Amino acid sequence: MSAKADTLLLFGATGDLAQRMLLPSLCALHADGLLDPGLQITGTARADLSDAAFRNFARAAVEKYLPAQRRGSMADFLNRLHFVPLDVTQQDGFGALAKKIGRPADRLAIFLSTAPDLFEQTIAGLAAAALSEGARIGLEKPLGHDLASSREINDAVGRAFPEERIFRIDHYLGKETVQNLIALRFANLMFEPLWNAQHIDHVQITVAETVGLEGRVGFYDGAGALRDMVQNHMLQLLALVAMEPPTHFDANSVRDEKVKVLRALRPVGPGESVTGQYRGGAVKGQIVAGYDEELGRDSETETFVALKAHVDNWRWKGVPFYLRTGKRLPERVTEILVQFRAIPHSIFDGARTRANRLLIGIQPQENITLSLMAKVPGLDREGLSLREVPLKIAMTDAFSGKEKRIAYERLLLDLIEANQTLFVRRDEVEAQWTWIDGIRAQWHAEGLTPKPYNSGAWGPSAAIALTERDGVSWHE
Hints:
Layout: E1 7-11, H1 16-31, E2 40-45, H2 51-65, H3 74-78, E3 81-85, H4 93-101, E4 108-112, H5 119-128, E5 136-139, H6 147-158, E6 166-168, H7 176-186, E7 200-208, H8 217-220, H9 224-242, H10 251-263, E8 273-279, E9 281-283, E10 286-288, H11 291-295, E11 304-310, E12 320-326, E13 333-340, E14 357-363, E15 367-375, E16 386-394, H12 395-398, H13 407-417, H14 426-446, E17 451-454, H15 461-468
Parallel strand pairs: 1-2, 1-4, 2-3, 4-5, 5-6, 7-12, 8-17
Antiparallel strand pairs: 7-13, 8-11, 9-10, 11-12, 13-14, 14-15, 15-16
C-alpha cells in the first residue's frame, strides 16, 4: 500500500474534533502545499447540509481555530470540500455516499470520528457499498473500554480492513516533542550507553490538566483517568522511553519494539496505585466546582491516577516508572523526567552534587532540559563551589521560522500517504488493555475508591507518599 489517497472521507465531519482539529489541520496542510491538488475531502454526518453549507461550517471552524497566517487561500481549500448527509444506522444511505465519491477504492482514505458503538454499523455499511475494498481507515479513540470490547471493535474493523490498512490514532504520537524523543535517543551517541538501569534511577511521566469535565460528562464518567489517559497516551510515552533501538524508522520496526515494552510491564501490585477525585477549589485563581457537582450526582469515577510501573527486562530491571495524570491540577503540563543516578563518589569536599536530570516538555512548552553540575565563578580559595545549571533547548528557539503544527496535521497527512509509523497496531492496543484491566481488577480486589483532593492541588496526598517512600519527589 503506497498510493496516495485522492479522496479523504471524514465521518463525524460536523463534530467537535472536526471543528477544532481536523478541518483546521487540513486547511493548514493545503496552505503549505502538502495536499495534492486533486485531493477531494468529503464530509459526512447526520446533519442535512449541502456542499455550500458544509463549506460555510468549515470556514467558521478554520477562522476560529487556525491562526490567520496559516490559512493560505481559504477559497481554494473550501472548494475541495463536499458533504453527504448520512445516518450510519441506515445501511441504504451508504450507496448514495459511494455514488458521490465515485473514486477507486484503493485511493480512498477514511477517517472515522464517531462514537465507538457506531463503528461496527459504519464499517458494515462501508463494506456493503464496496467502499472498504482497498481503502485505508483511521480510527479515533476510544477503542473499547477493556480488552474484550477492544477485541470486538478490532474484529469488526478487521472483517473489512486488513491490519496494514488500519490506522489507529493516538494524537500524542503526532506531537513534535514526542517524535523528538525518538531522535534524542537514537540520533545522539551520548544517551544510548546511559539509557539503562545501571545509570537511570527512575522515570516520571506526568500528564496534568487544569480543566474539569468540559462537556465530556457522558464519556468521561464511564471511562475515568485510567482509561482516558493512561491506557493510550501515557503508555505510548512509556513505550517510546523504554523501547530498544528499532532496526529502521519504519512502521513495523518501531511498533515491534514498543509492543515488547508493553508486554514486559509487570502487573501493578498492592500499594502501587493511587486514585483520586477532585472536589471544589481554585485553579489559577478561579473558583471551580467539584466533580460530583459538575456531574450532578455521586460517582466513584477517578479523575486522578498515580502508578508505580516496572518494565521487567534486562534494560530496565529495578527502575520504577512513576506515572500520574489528573484533572483540575495546578497547571497544564505534559512532561517526561529521566532521573539519572548520582555519581558514585564526589571529589569535591563539602560541595553538594545533584544527579543529572533530563526533562522533556511536551506541552504546553516543547523543550528539552538537561540539568548539569557546574562550577560557580570565583577564586574558590576554600574549594570549588558547585551549582546545578540547566542546558536548555527550546524547540521554538532552536527551529525559529518553523510553524508549530497541530498534531493532527502529521497524522492526517500520514493517513493520506499510507505511512503507519505513528499509528498504533492491534497487538499494542491489546497489550495496553491487558495491563489496564489488571489494574482495575487490583482496585476491585482491594476495594480501592478515589480519594478526594481539592481542585488546584497535585492530587491526593497518597500520590506524594507513593514516590516519597522510595526517596523520590514528583517534579513540579
